[in-house]
Each structure stands twice: as C-alpha cells, then as structure tokens.
Specification:
Elements (H helix, E strand, L loop, with lengths): L1 H9 L4 E4 L5 H4 L3 E4 L1 H4 L13 E2 L17 E4 L6 E4 L5 H4 L8 E2 L21 H12 L5 H13 L1
Antiparallel strand pairs: 1-2, 3-6, 4-5
Helix pairs in contact: 1-6, 5-6
Length: about 160
C-alpha cells in the first residue's frame, strides 16, 4: 500500500543535511547523515523533541508572493550583508542575524488539513513539500516514491 511504502521512505531513507543552520552549526558537522525522522522525531506528533530552530531555506524563498504579503529587507550593520525574506523567522523575536529563517520543526500530525505549507505558505500541496526536500537535500526520490511519501504524510 502507498502509505506503508511511504513510511518505509520516511523512517530509513538516508540523505545528507548540509548548509542547514540549526543542524550543521549546532552539531559542528558540515554533513549530517539523516532521515526525515531525524528532525521529525517526536513520537505521535512528528515535531522535534528538542524544540530546535532550523533554517532549511524556506525563509529566503520568495515564490508566489502577492503584493499584500510582507517582504522584509534586513541589513547586518556589522557586515552590510542584506537579506530579503517574507518571514524573518526566529530573528523577529531574538533580533539575531543568525536566527533569520530559523523556524521550529513543525508537528506532522494532521498535516494534510493545514495547507499551504512552510511558514511562508510557498508550498501549496504536500507534493510541493516533498519536492522541496528532495531538491534541497538531494534525496533522489523517484516520482512513485514521492507519491508514496505524500500518501504517508496525508495519513498522519
């Protein structure tokens, strides 16, 4: 069944996490072998047990943004680096440059009922979410595996 096959992808399929603030810098490892369950490890809810804040890259994705939605332009006063983002993430609370784009790992329970996805709302469907992670982390999912993983996520 698609749900069972999707679960078999979610739990044991290993990929490498790179360039992900909140993971690589915290663990002081440039590459972290992981599965989906590495970040979504809280039993029965699928959040992260440590309430870790991570930047997987969606905070700087400016897709499908309407003129009514915010677009923040942030400048680091020490380096003059500029970032544009629809959602500064944890930085909006802490004021820290390194917290731009960091978000708490969300719960996966009832995920199918909560579109659009990501804090910026840039993923309209669960397929868009799976496609983002596949491209971002080079997981290498085939189209049928993506469909199975989506079926599993819808069942949570």
């Amino acid at each position: 069944a698609p749900i069972a096959r999707g679960e078999q992808l979610f739990n044991p399929r290993v990929f490498n996490i790179r360039e992900t603030p909140g993971v690589n810098d915290v663990l002081n490892q440039p590459i972290v072998p992981a599965t989906c369950g590495t970040c979504h490890n809280a039993q029965n809810v699928g959040g992260h047990t440590l309430s870790r804040f991570m930047n997987i890259g969606v905070g700087t994705v400016i897709l499908n943004r309407t003129p009514q939605e915010p677009l923040y332009t942030l400048r680091n006063l020490a380096t003059n680096e500029v970032v544009q983002t629809p959602d500064p993430g944890r930085a909006l609370i802490t004021g820290k440059w390194e917290d731009i784009g960091r978000f708490k790992v969300p719960s996966l329970r009832g995920l199918a009922a909560r579109p659009p996805y990501f804090h910026s709302g840039t993923a309209a469907t669960l397929h868009d979410v799976v496609d983002f992670y596949d491209r971002r982390y080079g997981i290498g999912l085939r189209p049928d595996e993506m469909d199975d993983l989506v079926a599993f996520l819808r069942a949570l």
